[in-house]
Design brief:
Length: 294
């Protein structure tokens, strides 16, 4: 058994399935996005973990599995909220006790980086932080405000560009359908603009979904109406069409998506657009409803 204390539920990006999940915080320090239920359980209330506990976890894991662990994901929702000095101590301990680790990643809120200078982010990169997942959700300020994201186009661009300048790979998530019917077009266009302004290494889209109902979202966004399947495809077409990317791995293959899209942008832009247009015309093979896990 891994000698680490986990507070369930624990979330990680799908691509971190092989990673050691190392909680350095619990929950999310923001926790106000009205579409997100990840950290709403009482036991997931935000707190930074005690430094001694985290360092003990790393040391004990190293004693048992030292040379087997190649990837570490720093949990929970926004590990980078911790002060840089604390993060550097954690990264240093990983290097010492888990010497085979080649990749360290975490989620990151743009707000986490507001007070961190470029030099601090460079130091984190030099100490081994190599990849972050940023839930941008949208590049449209009206959508971001309506869902209480607490970020803007500019704050997200600033954070992504700081990370990029440090050489940290960025995986950016956009939520298809988040603007509802009313803001669908501007959501798609400005999300494409956000990606173009930051040129992330990875870009993914997910279809917004509400396993526990839409009440929280509607409280702040009363006019929100869900997109139908053809409207979701139409939004995706606007988004893809607006992308001007040089080298970004694009994925729209999460279980929530009806249509599975994968490619490298810009090289595959026309192929991906053709797939979406086929779906709009009702000619594409879609994931059956029973296979859409949300
Ligand atoms: S910042 Fe991320 S984890 Fe926190 S509430 Fe928003 S979507 Fe959820």
């Amino acid at each position: 058994m891994i000698p680490i204390r986990y507070v369930e539920p624990v979330f990680r990006p799908p691509s971190e399935a092989e990673s050691l999940i190392l909680p350095v915080t619990d929950g999310c320090s923001w926790n106000q996005c009205t579409f997100c239920e990840m950290y709403t359980a009482p036991q997931k209330k935000f707190r930074a973990r005690d430094e001694a506990e985290v360092l003990d976890s790393i040391r004990a894991t190293g004693e048992r599995y030292g040379s087997d662990i190649r990837r570490v994901f720093l949990a929970d929702g926004d590990a980078l909220v911790l002060p840089t000095r604390r993060l550097l101590t954690v990264l240093e301990a990983i290097r010492t006790h888990l010497p085979a680790v080649r990749r360290i990643s975490s989620y990151c809120l743009p707000r986490n980086l507001k007070k961190k200078s470029q030099q601090e982010i460079d130091e984190l990169a030099a100490a081994g932080l190599s990849m972050v997942y940023v839930g941008a959700e949208s590049g449209d300020d009206a959508v971001l405000a309506a869902v209480s994201k607490g970020e803007t186009f500019d704050s997200t661009v600033d954070a992504l560009n700081k990370l990029g300048a440090a050489g940290i790979s960025r995986s950016v998530m956009i939520l298809n359908g988040l603007g509802g019917r009313e803001l669908s077009r501007q959501h798609a266009e400005n999300s494409a603009r956000l990606a173009n302004a930051t040129q992330p290494e990875y870009l993914a889209t997910l279809v917004v979904s509400f396993p526990k109902g839409e009440q929280r979202l509607r409280a702040g966004f009363p006019g929100w109406e869900p997109l139908t399947q053809p409207e979701l495809f139409a939004e995706m077409e606007i988004f893809l069409d607006g992308l001007e990317l040089k080298r970004t791995v694009f994925r729209s293959d999460h279980a929530s998506n009806w249509l599975i899209l994968k490619g490298t942008l810009g090289a595959d832009k026309e192929r991906l657009l053709a797939q979406v247009r086929q779906a709009i015309a009702g000619e594409a093979k879609l994931r059956p409803a029973w296979a859409r896990g949300l």
